[in-house]
Amino acid sequence: MGTLVMVEFLTVDGTMQGLGSPQEDTRDGFQHGGWGAAYADSIHQVTTTSGLNATEAYLFGRNTYEKMAAFWPRQSDSNPMAAHLNTTPKYVASRTLTTASWANTRILSDQIADAVQNIKSIHNGDTVVLGSGKLARSLLADGLVDRIRLFIHPLLLGTGKRLFGALPTPRKLTLTSVAQTDLGTVALTYDVHQVKKPRECQINGGSDLVS
């Protein structure tokens, strides 16, 4: 059985919206897009190739998928991240997406909790959720996330979409690693302690993930 890993980039006050560029995500009038750019070049200080080597698949919500699909296929495979993203199996949760131009992509349109459980059984390594806040919150609530890796940037925005939301029950985490960049970004890795709950709750929660 594989591991489902959330990888998220946040400000100290928990904002995840619009990390990469000013126009990346302006929903609800968000005006601080691109806040992560100043810290991007230092992230390699707290990452290793072992993370890529352990990743056997990626899982996205529709919005994150479309932004990444518009960028990464145009990047040179001399970039290790581009090469890995472009060649590794990818899954996107969406009821409205009918075709996916990014190579090696499969669309998950219904019963997402069951589909994700199946993905974990197919891939023995890590299946990584990048960004995809709505999807990530639902998977966490459904007890499907095994590990959370947070990159917390030394910044307070006071606005924007937050990563974490309501949970059906508190979830205990075990801190397994801490690292810091020269610019003050902190990388934290937690293992998630699972809480048993009826299977029908997982299916009903999962069915509301996609858009």
UniProtKB/TrEMBL annotation:
<dbReference type="GO" id="GO:0008703">
    <property type="term" value="F:5-amino-6-(5-phosphoribosylamino)uracil reductase activity"/>
</dbReference>
<protein>
    <recommendedName>
        <fullName>Bacterial bifunctional deaminase-reductase C-terminal domain-containing protein</fullName>
    </recommendedName>
</protein>
<dbReference type="GO" id="GO:0009231">
    <property type="term" value="P:riboflavin biosynthetic process"/>
</dbReference>
<dbReference type="Pfam" id="PF01872">
    <property type="entry name" value="RibD_C"/>
</dbReference>
<dbReference type="InterPro" id="IPR002734">
    <property type="entry name" value="RibDG_C"/>
</dbReference>
<dbReference type="InterPro" id="IPR050765">
    <property type="entry name" value="Riboflavin_Biosynth_HTPR"/>
</dbReference>
<feature type="domain" description="Bacterial bifunctional deaminase-reductase C-terminal">
    <location>
        <begin position="5"/>
        <end position="185"/>
    </location>
</feature>
<dbReference type="InterPro" id="IPR024072">
    <property type="entry name" value="DHFR-like_dom_sf"/>
</dbReference>
